[in-house]
Specification:
Layout (H helix, E strand, L loop, with lengths): L5 H9 L10 H10 L4 H15 L6 H11 L19 H4 L2 H12 L16 H15 L39 E5 L16 E3 L17 H23 L11 E13 L10 E4 L2 H4 L3 E5 L6 E3 L4 E8 L5 E6 L20 E7 L11 H13 L3 E5 L8 H4 L7 H16 L5 E5 L22 H4 L4 E3 L4 E5 L2 E5 L4 H8 L1 E3 L7 H11 L20 H4 L8 E3 L7 E5 L2 E5 L4 E2 L2 E2 L1 E7 L15 E6 L1
Parallel strand pairs: 5-8, 9-10, 10-11, 11-12, 14-16, 16-18
Antiparallel strand pairs: 1-22, 2-13, 3-4, 3-7, 4-5, 6-15, 7-8, 9-21, 13-14, 17-18, 19-20, 21-22
């Protein structure tokens, strides 16, 4: 078979309007050789696969599926090797365990005759073909960064050795560039004081300090939890408005009355202005819901799960006509007893995962962040998951060399060893996207049993998602769940001309609803344990700093006196992302107050 060239591949794929990136040429040459296809044939098979499976673009993950799911079904099979000689070099380093792992994965798929009973035996010819595939992959023009040491050679070693390291992150430009500023950031000094900080939960009795049993909710208990959320907000609104009682939402009335309830959608699907219903609590309305007419309102921003108070009419008893929606009741700022030194400052660095690019597990973005931490030496660094990201193509494709826990352990060892002599406190927050941890919200802290001397003392603090922490008299509200993206997908709004701060409005919803996750029903990605919401998801005060990482655009904003921060993601696909740093001046008195006026912040490219 003639050799496969990059120019020929590019020409054939361009006929179908596909522009190939440099990273795909070695993989496509490998597929051509493996399945005995020329450039034109492999291009045609890819287009057929793309159209059949509704694939948007070519990625390493979709190429894996193309090889695994499409080419074998087209009657194409890897050739059997005629000679049994394995060349020296890399092939001699490929052990039987490596081949057996691949053959074990292949044995779980149906055979050509449709039989699936038992594990099929790997013949010597098939074993040699697999050896050749691995050897060809290693001999590709892409430069391999595989270390000579074994994966278990310590935290400094690479965390995954089965795939080539992505070069796009190393080739990034403008590292360290400031892309967003807040307050007096130009003249700020971003180096920490070099003194240990005091980190404690704001509510010790309500702090989620260990994992809990979940998936044991009864429907009646869920209904009680949802009703309690409405009753809590109704009582606040009733007291604030000075009302003796709130009328039922479904009661017919010719005059304008004040009532409260939860916003919901009248059917499955996204909320819109014609599908809004208002659901009352059991106490006031026996859980009745009624359609809502929003045509009299000049501006509004509503989402499912939001509890509102409004002036409304219901002439027929069948539809509420809302005249006005009252502003939410603001929580107080925290009142603390912790004393701080006059004039002391607090430098905080904030980064949200993933901490590795999407097509390898070498954690280059994390290493770059640790270099920055060693340089700036902040007082506190808040690291939010995912650390072992279920959306990483290596994890998603089942191509890991080690378990999820082993990968996380090496990641934590790397962080611990690089920061243990810096007088920098590290706060570690889990994420529902962590493959090795409980996928539930609220989520308990990471548990650790390996090398407890590294993780049970000093500078590493494992906390829950969400959590409210006090750091040197500054209160931080933290959640790693992308509530801003989830709210943005469900919110229906009518804004006056000139109102463009949608991100600030989404963050404001959390403060208005006194909750780190006010959306109900929650996103399909989230497994919400509603019985835990009252103790661990409800806010009791407005935090000085609210950290809400999101896939939406990064920002630092003043929301009702709270400094809201979205640091962005440290890694975005195959390239670097952003992180944030804050300079705060803790109050020296215990009276509740906002710190926004004395806060400076920046968001930088990693």
């Amino acid at each position: 078979m003639p050799s496969i060239t990059d120019d020929a591949l590019s020409e054939e794929f361009e006929l179908f309007g596909v522009d190939l990136s440099d990273e795909f040429y070695p993989r496509l040459r490998e597929l051509c050789s493996l399945f005995r296809q020329d450039e034109g044939q492999i291009a045609q098979e890819w287009i057929a696969f793309k159209c059949s499976r509704n694939v948007n673009s070519m990625t390493m993950s979709t190429l894996e599926k193309f090889e695994r799911e499409w080419l074998p079904k087209k009657g194409l099979k890897p050739p059997k090797r005629e000679d049994q000689t394995v060349k020296s070099g890399l092939a001699n380093r490929i052990g039987d365990d490596d081949v057996d792992m691949i053959s074990m994965y292949a044995s779980s798929t149906p055979t050509d005759t449709g039989k699936t009973a038992g594990k099929r035996q790997v013949t010597p010819d098939e074993r040699d073909a697999l050896r050749k595939r691995l050897a060809d992959s290693e001999r590709s023009p892409v430069v391999s960064t595989r270390p000579s040491a074994s994966p278990s050679g310590g935290a400094k070693g690479l965390l995954n050795t089965s795939v080539l390291r992505s070069n796009r992150f190393a080739e990034r430009k403008a590292a360290g560039e400031v892309v967003c500023s807040f307050g007096a950031a130009d003249n700020a000094v971003w180096k920490g004081r070099g003194k240990s900080c005091v980190i404690a939960p704001y509510h010790p009795t309500k702090h989620l300090d260990k994992p809990y049993k979940y998936m044991f909710q009864k429907l009646a208990d869920q209904a009680d939890a949802l009703n309690d959320q409405v009753v809590y907000m109704e009582e606040l609104l009733r007291t604030h408005l000075g009302l003796e009682e709130l009328p039922p939402v479904g009661q017919a009335c010719q005059d304008t009355v004040q009532l409260a309830g939860r916003v919901a959608c009248d059917s499955q699907g996204r909320l819109n202005s014609q599908s809004v219903v208002l659901e009352g609590s059991r106490d006031t309305s026996i859980g009745v819901s009624i359609p809502v007419d929003l045509s009299d309102l000049k501006d509004y921003a509503l989402f499912p799960g939001q509890v509102i108070a409004a002036d409304a009419m219901n002439p027929t008893g069948k539809k509420l006509r809302i005249k006005n929606i009252y502003p939410s009741i603001k929580l107080p700022f925290p009142q603390l007893d912790i004393k701080t030194e006059p004039g002391s400052s607090l430098v905080v660095m904030v980064a949200a995962g993933p901490f590795s690019v999407s097509d390898d597990l070498y954690y280059d973005p994390l290493r770059a962040l640790l270099d920055t931490i060693r340089k700036d030496q902040p007082d506190v660094c808040i690291l939010m998951g995912p650390f072992v990201d279920i959306k990483n193509s290596i994890i998603e494709g089942g191509r890991m060399d080690e378990t999820y826990d082993q990968t996380f352990r090496k990641c934590m060892e790397l962080i611990a060893e690089d920061t243990q002599k810096l007088n920098c406190e590290i706060v570690v927050v889990p994420s529902w996207r962590d493959a090795h941890h409980d996928p539930v919200y609220p989520q308990g802290p990471f548990t650790w049993t390996h090398k407890p001397q590294l993780f049970s003392s000093q500078h590493l603090h494992f906390v829950s998602d969400p959590c409210t922490l006090v750091v040197n008299n500054v209160v931080f509200g933290i959640t790693s769940t992308d509530i801003l993206l989830h709210l943005g997908a469900e919110e229906v709004s009518l804004c006056p001309p000139g109102s463009t701060d949608r991100l600030g409005r989404l963050a404001q919803h959390l403060l208005d609803q006194h909750s780190y996750y006010p959306l109900y029903p929650p996103s399909e990605d989230i497994n919400a344990d509603l019985q835990q919401f009252e103790d661990h998801v409800r806010m009791s005060v407005i935090p000085h700093v609210l950290i809400v990482p999101s896939d939406l655009r990064y920002f630092i904003k003043d929301c009702s006196g709270c400094c809201c921060v979205n640091p962005g993601r440290l890694a975005k696909g195959q390239v670097g992302g952003t992180y944030a740093r804050l300079l705060l001046h803790p109050p020296t008195f215990t009276e509740p107050t906002s710190l926004v006026s004395s806060t400076a912040g920046q968001i930088l490219k990693i």
